[in-house]
Amino acid sequence: MNNIIHHVTVKIENIIKDTDRVNVYILSDPDQNILPPFTAGARIDLHLPNGMVRQYSLTGKMIGHKQYKIAVQKEISGRGGSVYIHENLKIGDIIPISLPRNLFPIQKASRKHILIAGGIGITPFIPMVQTLEKRGEDFELHYCCRNAESTPLYNILKCLIDKNKLHIHHDNGDTNAGLDIRDLLSKQQYGEHAYCCGHSGMVRAFKDATKKWSQDSVHCEYFGANNNDNVAYEIEIASTGQIIPVNQNQSMLTALRAKDINIEASCEAGICLQCKTKYLDGNPQHRDMLLSPEDRKCYITPCVSSCQGGRIILDL
Ligand code: FES
């Protein structure tokens, strides 16, 4: 039987400072071999030396596959992955990554593509606009940021796209002064597809604005969940009766791991469902991006989701 390759090893070839908070990392094969191909919108998992796994969109030009490019924004109040990358990874380091996978592809045979990016959410759109320009398809890109200084990858982007198709929206910190997504997407024209990658507030506004669209035409790339509203609670393990306290600053996954209960997890951001676990009782606080309403009645994603208080019984 042939072995299937799930991971490759890459070397950090270069690190380029793009903005105050964003670094671009150039990754290549340590022996200069060609890397596995990818399509516009694809992402990879980075397996960091501290055991964290984080996803980043491939954002390089799609010319040959000798290098991958990712852009990482340092999020001081995030889950720690981006801070670790900024403060620890250096040129020459060797790290394992997953093969590219694409959950955010460009749709074929569309009349027009409307792309909406928020901040570092621009990353998957860089190869996407390149592909759309090459195909000669109609599109417009709306890129929302606070100000010119905090507009990641702008210098790369402006060389790839006709300026009439690029709409930059700087709100200077006033959310009312930014792009009116509802107005932009108020009516779906026949054959139009809309795409969004940005912070959770932007994705919510996008989903709200496209509620009446055909859902086959609406595409989101998720960054991961915010779990700042946790409360303390307990987990009960159904098979043993073991009680595990979870404090306000802990994820359910971390609390389980601390007691040597290991659930397989990949993204740790609520966007892959690898950690999906059955629960038997309790009031879950779901924060994943993918479970269906039906699944939420009996499954939870311990990497990001929690309990609204009291106790949750996991079918483990
Ligand atoms: S590990 Fe991906 S959803 Fe939990």
How would you explain this protein's 3D organization?
It comes from OCS116 cluster bacterium. Keywords: 2Fe-2S, Flavoprotein, Iron, Iron-sulfur, Metal-binding, Oxidoreductase. This is Oxidoreductase. Pfam families: Fer2, NAD_binding_1. GO terms for molecular function: 2 iron, 2 sulfur cluster binding; metal ion binding; oxidoreductase activity. Helix 5 links the parallel strand 10 and strand 11 (218-221). Strands 9-8-7-10-11 form a 5-stranded parallel beta sheet, sandwiched between helices. Strands 13-12-18-14-16 form a 5-stranded mixed beta sheet, with helices on one face. The chain has a 4-stranded antiparallel beta sheet with strand order 5-2-1-6, covered by helices on one side. It is α/β, with parallel strands linked by helices and 316 residues long. The radius of gyration is 21 Å and the shape is globular. The chain folds into 3 domains: 7-98, Beta Barrel (Elongation Factor Tu (Ef-tu), domain 3), CATH 2.40.30; 112-221, Nucleotide-binding domain of ferredoxin-NADP reductase (FNR) module (Rossmann fold, 3-Layer(aba) Sandwich); 233-314, Beta-grasp domain (Ubiquitin-like (UB roll), Roll). The chain has helices spanning 81-88, 125-135, 154-160, 181-184, 200-209, 252-258, 293-296, and strands spanning 7-17, 22-28, 43-47, 53-57, 67-73, 94-98, 112-118, 139-145, 166-170, 192-197, 218-221, 233-237, 243-246, 277-281, 284-285, 299-300, 306-307, 311-314. The longest helix is centred in the middle third of the chain and has 11 residues, at 125-135. The chain binds FE2/S2 (inorganic) cluster. The site of FE2/S2 (inorganic) cluster has 13 residues, from loops. Residues 265-268, 270-275, 288, 301, 303 line the site of FE2/S2 (inorganic) cluster.
